Amino acid sequence: MRRFAVAALLLGGCAVTPPPPVTPNAVPMVAAVAETDPVDTAADAADDPAIWRNRRNPAASLVIGTDKQAGIHVYALSGKRLSFTPAARLNNVDLRDVGGRVIAVASDRADVGEAHVALFTLDTVAGKLVPMGRYPVGPGEAYGMCLWTRARDHALFGFVVMKDGRIDQVSIDTTGATPQVRTVRSIKVGTQAEGCVVDDRTGLLYVAEEDIGLWRFAADPAAPVTGMAVAKVDGTTLVADAEGLALAPKGRDGGYLVVSSQGDNAYTLYRLPGVTYAGRFRIGGGAIDGTSETDGIDLMLGDFGPGLRHGLMVAQDGDNAPETQNFKFVAWDKVRKALRLR
Fold first, then answer.
1. Superfamily of chain region 45-282
2. Which of 26, 48, 96, 263, by CA, is between 20 and 30 Å from 147?
C-alpha cells in the first residue's frame, strides 16, 4: 500500500537494540539483471511477486506477479510475460509445492467488506496459472498473503493480512476434488499492515505493520495470539511504509529477513534468528532502471541458471516511467557482495 506523506511512528516497548545511524549516501546500489514486461493497467497496479524454482532446469524457473487492477501474470526469468489470468483485485500472492503440484494463493479484495483467497495451480510446463476457485475468509479487506507448510505433517496454512491489521489464519486442503479453506485463528496488530512471510524452518510468522515496524508470531494455530515486536520504523534504517517481506534462510534458523523500506526506496536486512539490523541497499545503477516505492518482494536461494547461481530476489517497481509498473530481478550474490554479508 503506497502512501506519500506518512509520519514515522516509533514502536513503544520494542526490545530491540537501536541500530547504528545510516545516511542515504551510505546505502549501496545493486543493479537489476532483468525486468518484466510492464503490466497492462496504469497507475498503482503491479503489487506482489512469488518465485517458483525449477530444480531440474533452473533457467526455466518462473515468477508470478499480481496486477491488482486486472489479474495475475507468469513471467520467465528473462522477464518475458508467458501468460495472464484475469482476476479482479488480487493483491498479494505466495506459492508452495503441495503433493507434486504448485499451489498459488492470492489475497482477493473483489468483494467489498468480505475478504477472500483465490487459489490457482501453476502449470510449470506451459507457464500458466489455472484457477481453483475463490474462498471466503472473513469480514474486511484482504491485503497481505503468505503461506506456511507445517513441518510435522506438511499441512498448508495461509495468513491473510487485512487492511485494519487483523490477520486471519486459514487452513488450505487441496487433496480432494474441491479445495477446503477454513479460518482457524485470528491475530492482530494495531494499525494497517500488509507484508508477511513465514519461516517454514522455525514456524515463525513475520508481519510488517506499515508505520510501526515488524512483529513476530508463532505460526501454529494452537499457539498464543500475542506477537513480539522485533524491529521498528525509525525513519533511518526502516522508513514507512514497511511493506513486502522475504527470507534468505541459512542453516537451521539463520539467514536474513528482507523488508521493503518503501518510504526511501530501499531494502533493509535483519540477521536471523535475533532480527538484528544487518544493512540496507537500493536497486539501481545499471542498464535497467532501478526500483522505487516497492510494495511486494520475494526472494529464493539456490541455482536459477547463468547469472543467478546463488539466488533470485524480485521487487515490484512502483515507478517504471514512461512504462507502467513492473518487477525487477536481482542476483542475490550481488546483494551479499554489496553488503559484505557472510
1. TolB, C-terminal domain (2.120.10.30)
2. 263
